[in-house]
Amino acid sequence: MAPAALPASFPPTPIRISPTLSSPHSAVNNLLPFPTASLFLHGYIAGLEHAPLLPLRRSPSCFTRCTTSTSPSISKATSVLFSQELGLDEREVECLLQKHPELELASPESLHRRLLSLQSVGITGLGLHRTVARRPKTLTSPEVGRFIDFVHKELEGLEPAKLERLLVSSHPQFFPAFSAKVRLLVDHGMPGNKLGQVLNDVNISKVFGARPIEGLERMIVFLKGYGWPELIVRRPSLLNLDLENQLIPRVDYLAEVGAGDREATGLIINKWPAILSCTVEHFRSHIEFWRSIGLADKEVFKIAMVYPQIFSVSKERKLKPRIEFLHQCKMNAEDISKFLIKAPLFVSLSFEYNLSKKLAFLVKIGYRHRTRELALAVGAVTRTSCENLQMVIDLFFSYGFSRENVLTMSMKHPQVLQYNHESMEKKIEFLVEGMGREIGELLIFPAFLGYKLDDRIRHRYEMNKEIRGKGISINKLLSSRSRSS
Asked: Which family does it belong to (predicted)?
């Protein structure tokens, strides 16, 4: 039986209908015959004529095959529904229904519910128009309906643009297997609230389409040895890699560099998951560079344990000139290895915006070019900003220290230049005002400024001031053990 004829007139201000919270995909309470999307109000539809991503409007062949008058068989309710929700005119609705008769066979109520369910997962406005125009079965397929329900309940955070591409590019038969594979991640410990975030950053067709569920599970089992699921939460794109041809060879090569130490290899991977995006050829190229300057594989591995990003640094632009600088500062291979373990950022920081400015500060206070002392000082200040370094030097000057004094302290204890200037100021104030000491004691023991004020300095001072008096050096005060400590 044909549906009852609908009123010809529309409300001047269309009313948007939202899906109910209890069951947005199977039933709609208070169903009205004229649902409208807020983005397709009267007068806005004409503006869609030239939208670049609306093939239904731009297809002359569609209009050629369709008559210009509305067929009596076309449901008036369906026509109104598509006009209001998708912004289609009468001729475009007729064309769509003639090309996809399953839409006309579906009841307006079921189409309405499906449109609402799509809107509830973020497919609205132009996105809704594109989805229906390119994949009309989205409105009638039971598989799509169950998939949308799955997205609504279990894939919080999945980006609408990602979901739209998935709906448009996938056959309905894809979705049941997709849902099963996503649930497999949860079964193996992936937090449910992270699924959307992970799916946003993976190639869904590759990971959940082409790859069989057995292959996905093998990858998960392998990654459990290297920090699953946190590893994938931090670097979802690793799921795009092929297990046999990419992941396993890369992990094996890293372990080989580390003399077979799988546990240490896992620590490196956990510290920087993106390291698995590097190919074996890339690893080998870097290892050969380090070998060429005299570093053994185990030494490179030790540097990587501190700073895995060492493998991402450009050899030509950064590694070669930085190593040449260290050579000019009289450092041999063993020195370079120890230096990079302490100051790995030296090879990756910008020379123009970082290192060159710090070198200027160091030379200004008296360091000489091409000296081992300069290299050690540069290594120390890689861990602080240029602004903090300037403030530290200014702080020393404000307490009456000369450039020669600052040079003396930093050569004894290079880390003094990297400490936070605000924290240092509090320690100096306590040294002078709280402990009644001379500021010059810092020239003898600049490492004083590296101790924590409350946990170490103040605590030790309060314990020892009555026992040993004020004559004890700050070095012995902080480094000696007392019965009460």
From this structure: Belongs to the mTERF family.
- Contact between 138 and 131 under an 8 Å Cβ cutoff? The reply is yes
DSSP 122-176: T--HHHHHHHHHH-GGGGT-HHHHHHHHHHHHH-TT--HHHHHHHHHHS-TTHHH
88 versus 48: the higher-pLDDT residue is 88
What sign for the dihedral angle of Cα 93, 98, 100, 101? positive
Give 188-194 contacts, CB < 8 A, sequence gap 24+.
188/217, 188/220, 188/224, 188/228, 188/229, 189/228, 189/229, 190/229, 190/232, 190/233, 191/229, 191/233, 192/154, 193/156, 193/157, 194/229, 194/233
Between the two ends of the chain, the Cα-to-Cα distance in Å is 93
Q: Which domains does the chain have, with CATH numbers?
A: 15-140 (no CATH), 250-348 (no CATH), 362-485 (1.25.70.10)
User: What are the structure tokens assigned to 339, written together?
Assistant: 């230096």
pLDDT higher than 50, residue 233: yes
Within 10 angstroms of residue 195's Cβ, the number of other Cβ atoms is 21
DSSP helix, strand, coil percent of the chain (3-state; round to 5): 65, 0, 35
- In the numeric block, the tokens 């329900």 are attached to 149
Rounded-to-integer distance, Cα 239 and Cα 208, Å = 10
pLDDT digits (tens, 9 = 90+) for 301-315: 999 999 999 999 999
Confidence at residue 414, expressed as pLDDT on a 0 to 100 scale: 95
